[in-house]
Amino acid sequence: MRKQIAAANWKMNLTLAEGEKLISDILACNSELKAGTEAIFAVPFPYLVQINSLLKGGPGLFVSAQNIAAMNNGAFTGEVSGAMLKSIGVQYAIIGHSERREYYHEHNAVLVEKVLRSLEHDIHPIFCCGEPLSIRENGSQNTYVFEQLKEGLFHLDAAQMKNFIIAYEPIWAIGTGKTATSDQAEDMHLHIRSLIEKKYGADIADSVSILYGGSVKGANAKEIFGKPNVDGGLVGGASLNATEFCEIMKSLKS
Ligand code: PGA
Fold first, then answer.
1. What does the pLDDT look like over 39-61, one tens digit per residue?
2. Is residue 50 within a helix (H) or strand (E), and if so which, with residue range?
3. SS3 sequence of 55-73
4. Quick check: 35 and 68 in contact, CB under 8 A?
């Protein structure tokens, strides 16, 4: 069974003290993850070390960067490289979040480089894809997501794609309170898995964890995660609340 994952994306929220309090509340309300499940906390860069040390000892608990540089090192003011992340024990990095694509103009060619830098340093990418509302309304979401995967991800070989993590996040559902229905999520996840199968074969496709993101909360996680091709969620707003995120962690399939 592929990994089932609850990933928290704090975005640019919380002070260090608030973040530490949130983590200790989450650890207190949910000390045991089910077998085969993981909780990943994508926290702001300056807190990675502290939050990682708070999580230490908890099986299945990891920190993630929210971004990674496309280059290895050099004169790139403000960037954080894969080698730097690796050197402080980070094992995951979100790549291609729609906010990075939209506000920082990260196009597919840059994402290709980010995925490669990440893998070079043994950091697992959490690769985001998902369509804007206009695309969903004209019914071409499957083609749109296919293009994102083809241009951003399908340069990888089969070994690199094994156990990969993809997050499907329809942009119209992010931070809007408007969740995709569990059927809409399942349809797209099945589509993504069949694209991977076509290119890499059934074994690889079956090993890839596909997370849903977009207004996941305690009240809807169980239904969405219950779908056969949904392997957990990437959670923004509700990940800032301990009770909500604990409920989301408990909603993972085992
Ligand atoms: P949301 O954000 O849960 O607040 O909709 C999800 C995300 O952007 O990863």
1. 999 999 999 999 999 998 678 99
2. helix 48-55
3. HCCCCCEEEEECCCCCCCC
4. no
Write out the two tokens for 95: 């790549």
Q: Which of 169, 186, 244, 247 is catalytic?
A: 169
User: 222: closest CA among 241, 246, 198, 242?
Assistant: 246
Q: List the beta bridge partners of residue 176.
A: none
Q: 85: Cβ below 6 Å to ligand 1? A: no
Instruction: Give the C-alpha separation, 140 to 133, whole Å.
Output: 10
Residues with Cβ within 8 Å of residue 220, at least 6 apart in sequence: 179, 182
- DSSP symbol at 34: P
- The whole-number pLDDT of residue 254 equals 83
Tokens of 226: 């219950």
Low-confidence ranges of the chain (pLDDT < 50): none
Contact between residue 63 and residue 51 where contact means Cβ atoms under 8 Å apart: yes
Ligand 1 geometric centre to CA of 41 (Å): 13
